[in-house]
């Protein structure tokens, strides 16, 4: 599914925080963007929130929480591949999937990905 919506300031701020590895703060900002939404955009933002919270749990050494959030993220992000709102969702999906595989194998978290985005 591909949405063509101009990137709003809250999403832009959330991406910036995500790319700075400030996952808790990212989740807070994205929830602010998510709350008033309905339909596909709401589900897309929810997927990004789950990715951020999953990585936050990785940072905090909580593999159980990370695993649950990343599984939810992958399910919710799948309909928005390969890109949505200018975000390379295919790359984010693949990197979240790799992080989940490391967690499930009992390995330490790997390097956290960045959200790559361009024009909508």
Structure overview:
By secondary structure, the chain is mainly α. The protein has a single domain (9-104), classed as Orthogonal Bundle (Hyaluronidase domain-like), CATH 1.10.3450.10. The chain has helices at 9-19, 23-34, 40-59, 63-77, 89-104. α3 runs antiparallel to α4. 36% of the residues are buried.
Give the quaternary arrangement of the chains: single chain
What is the number of strand segments? 0
Q: Would you identify the CATH architecture?
A: Orthogonal Bundle
Instruction: Provide the CATH superfamily.
Output: TTHA0068-like
* Structural class by helix and strand composition: mainly alpha
Compute the number of helices. 5
Please write the CATH class name. Answer: Mainly Alpha
Overall geometry comes to globular
Sheet having the most strands: none
CATH topology: Hyaluronidase domain-like
Low-confidence stretches: none
Radius of gyration from CA coordinates: 13 Å
Report the sheet-strand fraction: under 5%
Q: Termini separation (Å)? A: 14 Å
Q: Give the rounded overall mean pLDDT.
A: 93
Residues in helices, as a percent range: 55-70%
Q: What is the structure about, briefly put?
A:
With 120 residues, the protein is mainly α. The chain has five helices and no strands. The protein has helices at residues 9-19, 23-34, 40-59, 63-77, 89-104.
Secondary structure topology:
Elements: H1 9-19, H2 23-34, H3 40-59, H4 63-77, H5 89-104
């Amino acid at each position: 599914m591909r949405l063509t919506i101009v990137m709003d300031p809250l999403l832009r701020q959330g991406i910036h925080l995500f790319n700075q590895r400030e996952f808790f703060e990212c989740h807070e900002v994205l929830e602010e963007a998510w709350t008033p939404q309905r339909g596909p955009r709401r589900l897309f933002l929810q997927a990004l929130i789950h990715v951020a919270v999953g990585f936050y749990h990785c940072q905090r050494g909580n593999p159980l929480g990370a695993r649950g959030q990343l599984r939810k993220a992958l399910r919710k992000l799948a309909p928005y591949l390969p890109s949505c709102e200018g975000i390379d969702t295919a790359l984010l999906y693949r990197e979240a999937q790799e992080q989940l595989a490391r967690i499930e194998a009992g390995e330490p978290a790997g390097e956290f990905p960045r959200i790559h985005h361009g024009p909508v």
